Amino acid sequence: MKKKYLLLALALILPLTFAGAHPMQRFTQSADESEMRKRIANDFAEALLLAQEKSASVVDYDRAAKASINGMLRTLDPHSMYFDAKQWEEFQNDQRSRYFGIGSAIVQRNGKVYIWAPTDGTASYRAGLRYGDQIIAINGESTEGWTQSQVRNKLIGPDGTQVVVKVDRLGVGPLEFKLTRGAVPLPSLSNYFMLPGNIGYINLDRGFNTTTYDEVRRAILDLRQQGMTSLVFDLRLNHGGLVDQAWRVSNLFLYRDQKILSMRGRPATFPNRDYMATNTAPDDYPVVVLISRETASAAEIVAGALQDHDRARLVGENSFGKGLVQNPFTLKDGSALILTTGHYYTPSGRLIQRDYSGRSFYDYYLKRGDKEAVQHTEEKKTDTGRTVYGGGGIDPDVVEKVRITPKELEMQRAWFEPVFEFVHQLAAGQISGFPEYKIEKPADHHHRLQQSEYQVSDKLMAAFKTFMTERKDLKADLSRIDRETDFLKRWIRYELVTAAYGTETAYQVLLETDNQVQKAIGEIPKARMMAEDARRTRAARNND
Asked: pTM, whole model, 2 decimals?
């Protein structure tokens, strides 16, 4: 009897679920198509029942159904995907550039979880939580032994709900905060600021969401007011997002009627469309765009458009190579399918999608075997006649594959916990003789960092060495301190600036040893010449 009812339920639910986004299709399918759907549902139900009866493991029906949908989608392409109702809600919140919680970055150090950087304007910031506050209880439940993920899951929650957070503040003792969860902004721009030489820097690494264009436009206006005469536009780690936002961002830099992208799909379901620039007076300062192997989709639209029109010089490494247009289709239970409906092309006609045929899902995403698998399938020309290629992501004009040297990464891994503990004590005023480093107020997220601020002196380094000698529990290799002094000074300053001004401002300290950023700065003169060549080419065409 149990088998009978399970088979009946699956046979009824599965066809309706897959058809949920397209109610008209239920009335236009042929008899053969209808029969095929019934057969698929029956085959799935029979396999599920057999697994339930014979498998050594207990069958989780939700997981099995989700895995079957994703398995089906992977036969289409690597980017079509399924979200259950909770995942779809989270995805939409990301697209809206927000989530709900108390609003603070947290970190796990030496087996404990700490407040690292409260977000400006959120519940944690208004309450006065600070860098280094150790989270010891949530809603009366001790967090001893909890991971960072476990703490985070307790802090986020529905808008308007309350959570009681107890912290241990060094030099003060336990403090309890009753916080009301609210919308926490997730801006597309991690940060923007001025670099030496009147160079503006914009870090667009969190995707193209509903607020991206407005954020970039405001950042450019602010940087121009600060004296910006050239721009480093960082698209590394940007996985893409909304196409209309990529079009609008590109439009900031291109002239009216310059093509930004073209979309091509199945004529019956996805009409072809060209996206053109509409800006009659774009800024003409030199631009260098940073790209990496993670730069994908909408970020590649921007990089490809600026490269094809010779508007920017690209620095970094070959981008991911995702040239697929995708649309969401919601289902009756609140879940959703993201389906590929077409391809996009850069202004010169490049399809930058990497070949995914004959490769495993994981090899494709990890770009394993790309030396053999990725080929330049088509050659195109930019506005000024430079050769560019399609078929395998976007190639930078200047290759710089190493962002941070292996040695730098190894030092970060070795020192991030000892340095955090030292700065935790220092910022709390617990290291005697250094009152100027004590930080007694929440981070000022609007501060413009000066080069002279929080520089680490030799005297402070001597105190660091003494601290490490006394704190044997940190297991620091004391022999490394003298030969790695420059790194340690920079990392201590990074933590101090984080405590004083937040992670966004502190990021400036890390750029000092970012090889790709330094290379981009060096390419500004060539970007200026490229912009001038593009202007002359455009003027000549307009006069013809």
From this structure: 0.86
pLDDT in tens, 494-528: 999 999 999 999 999 999 999 999 999 999 999 99
d(CA 482, CA 345): 53
HEC states along 338-378? EEEEEEEECCCCCCCCCCCCCCCHHHHHHCCCHHHHCCCCE
> In CATH, what number is assigned to the domain containing residue 369?
3.90.226.10
Q: Summarize pLDDT for 264-293 with one digit per residue, the tens.
A: 987 777 788 999 999 999 988 999 999 999
Do residues 257 and 282 make contact, with C-beta atoms less than 8 angstroms apart?
no
Is residue 74 in a domain? Answer: no
As beta bridge partners, residue 518 has none
Query: Hey, which residues are catalytic here?
Result: 297, 308, 322
| Shared domain check, 225 and 345 | yes
Write the Ramachandran bin of 160: left for phi over 0, alpha for psi from -120 to 50, otherwise beta. Answer: left
- For 103, the domain range is 98-185
Final residue of a domain: which of 332, 367, 400?
400
- Is 476 buried (19+), middle (13-18) or exposed (0-12) by CB count in 10 A? buried
Per-residue confidence (pLDDT) for residue 29, from 0 to 100: 58
CA–CA dist 168, 183 (Å, integer): 26
Select from 501, 504, 508, 509 the least CA-distant residue to 439.
501
The backbone region for 369, taken as left when phi is positive above 0, alpha when psi lies in -120 to 50, beta otherwise, is left
Inter-residue contact 215 to 189 (CB < 8 Å): yes
Arithmetic mean of pLDDT, 309-314: 96
Query: How big, in percent rounded to 5, are the helix, strand and coil portions of the chain?
Result: 40, 20, 35
Same domain, 146 and 198: no
Run of H or E residues at 208: none
Query: Does the structure show a pLDDT above 60 at 238?
Result: yes
DSSP 58: P
Rounded to whole angstroms, the Cα distance separating 329 from 20 reads 9
Over 50: is that where the pLDDT of 336 sits? yes
Give the count of domains, the chain: 4
